[in-house]
Design a protein that fits this description.
The protein is mostly helical. 70% of the residues lie in helices and 2% in strands. The protein folds into 2 domains: 154 residues; 38 residues, no CATH class. The protein has 5 helices and 2 strands; from the N terminus they run H-H-H-E-E-H-H. The chain has a two-stranded antiparallel ribbon with strand order 1-2. It is elongated and about 90 Å long. Keywords: Membrane, Transmembrane, Transmembrane helix.
Length: 208
């Protein structure tokens, strides 16, 4: 009974971690709209920026450079949040190799041809890279082994949750800074383009 309660508690904590990870990833995907807005706004003026770039003052060029760097950082952090964490097992400290555990998560598939498998459906050469018979045998393990296995899974999910949460917190800060720089850059860019346009018109009048 005691082991059963332990297992139920660990399963509950695993479920909580999974829900938190989903929530973090959902919040991260919302930021795509904000980042995309920055990129679209700049690309709408890309022709003018390229044409007038040599005529911009130092402040405008610095602001454009900072904005570009911040957008690249934002996209990189966003991708790192959405993408799966590779080999979280290696991030768990003090794992005793003698502790018996069963497989809970099977991370890899075996493909006949990895490239072609993307386009094919139900290729008989593609399979989960773990024996079904072997897994059935592990189900005969005692309760302690199962508790160890679920505990290890909880640690992995906790690591994933924490790193994604920290990255999301950093992403939010970066987006706030990027928003401030974006509006400063956009305002400065608009004024610079108007000044250059006026200068070009004055040159045309002078030539006439």
């Amino acid at each position: 009974m005691e082991n059963e309660n332990k297992l139920l508690s660990i399963q509950f904590l695993i479920s909580e971690c999974q829900e938190t990870i989903k929530y973090i990833e959902t919040k991260a995907t919302i930021s795509i709209t904000v980042i995309a807005g920055f990129i679209v706004a700049i690309f709408e003026k890309i022709d003018i920026i390229i044409t007038n770039f040599n005529k911009y003052d130092t402040t405008t060029i610095i602001l454009l450079s900072i904005l570009g760097i911040l957008i690249i950082i934002s996209v990189s952090v966003l991708v790192s949040i959405i993408n799966p964490i590779q080999n979280p097992s290696k991030s768990i400290q003090e794992v005793d190799e003698e502790v018996e555990m069963i497989k809970i998560y099977f991370p890899k598939n075996k493909y006949g041809n990895k490239i072609l498998s993307i386009f094919k459906i139900n290729n008989e050469k593609d399979s989960l890279n773990y024996s079904f018979s072997k897994f059935i045998k592990t189900l005969k393990s005692d309760e302690k082994t199962i508790i160890n296995s679920f505990s290890f899974e909880l640690f992995k999910l906790s690591f994933i949750r924490n790193i994604k949460k920290d990255r999301l917190a950093f992403l939010i800060k970066i987006i706030i800074v990027t928003s401030i720089i974006f509006f400063a850059t956009y305002t400065k860019l608009t004024k610079s383009n108007e000044i250059i346009k006026q200068q070009n018109e004055n040159v045309k009048v002078a030539i006439r």
